Structure formats: C-alpha cells, structure tokens
C-alpha cells in the first residue's frame, strides 16, 4: 500500500512492470542535486529508503503498476538529475508529464531558493502537469534551514502547486 485516503483513494503498488494494455502516466521528480529525489523514488516503490544512493548523473526511469481503487494503471517515473552540469537536457523531459514532484530539502536553503527556477522551467516546457511540492529530509529537523511556513508560502504563491 502506498497511500490510502478513506474517503477517496486507495493506491496499491503492484511492482515494476510494463504493459501496453494499460493507461500510462508520466511522473517526473525534479529539484536541486542532493535533495533526496532518488531516495523519494525508492521510498515510493518499496516503502523503505536506504541512506546511500549514488547521484543520478542523467535520468533514472522506472515503470511501475499501481492499483488505484479498482483500476490498474502504469506510471513511468523519471528521476531527473539535479546537477546543473548534467541537467541541461532536463527541460525536454517535462513534455507530456502528467505529474511532477518538485522537491527541496528542509536543511538546504539553496535548494529552496532554486524552486522558482525549477518551477519556471517546468511551466515553460510542460503542458499541464499536476505539481506537488515536497519539503524533504524532515528527519533532519535539527538542521532545518527552511521553515514549514516558508514552504507553505511558496506553494500559496502558485495556484497549480499541491
């Protein structure tokens, strides 16, 4: 089980699979390097996150199937590189994204400052992606540099960020 909202949705992870017979949706994960994009991807897929992942140099993709209520769908997840040196080709990946997860680390003020650039790049290169904002690394509360209120304020500045 990935998510359950008693009133609307029950989402169950069914594994890494590819099927041409299912509705398919593209989900991209973006943000500055080191914010935990890859860890978030692994946590979404396995409910576990290990501490050590190699930096994503270009793009890492996973194809998974999930059951949403009674409907099985396929999600193509794109974990995009956050390093400016390697991320120059990232904008073209935004095209046809159904969902975007925009991530910053609460212990990295620079990653928070970069959000507007990532958001603008997304808006210039996508065609209507649903956007979610995640303040990551909450286990590092004692190192917090970005307050919850700052994250909420950023989100409230844009009508299309969930």
- What's the gyration radius in Å? 16 Å
N- to C-terminal separation? 21 Å
Can you give the mean pLDDT?
A: 81
SS elements, strand count: 7
Could you state the order of secondary-structure elements as H and E? Answer: EEEHEEEHHEH
User: What is the count of distinct domains?
Assistant: 1
What structural class do the secondary elements suggest?
A: alpha/beta
CATH homologous superfamily caption: P-loop containing nucleotide triphosphate hydrolases
CATH architectural arrangement: 3-Layer(aba) Sandwich
List segments where confidence is low: pLDDT < 50 over at least 5 consecutive residues.
Answer: none
Strand-residue fraction?
Answer: 25-35%
The main β sheet shows up as: 7 strands, mixed
Give the helix tally.
Answer: 4
Strand order of the largest sheet: 1-2-4-5-3-6-7
Descriptive report:
Helix content is 22%, strand content 31%. It is α/β, with parallel strands linked by helices and 162 residues long. The chain has a seven-stranded mixed β-sheet, with helices on both faces. The chain is globular. The two termini are 21 Å apart. The mean pLDDT is 81.
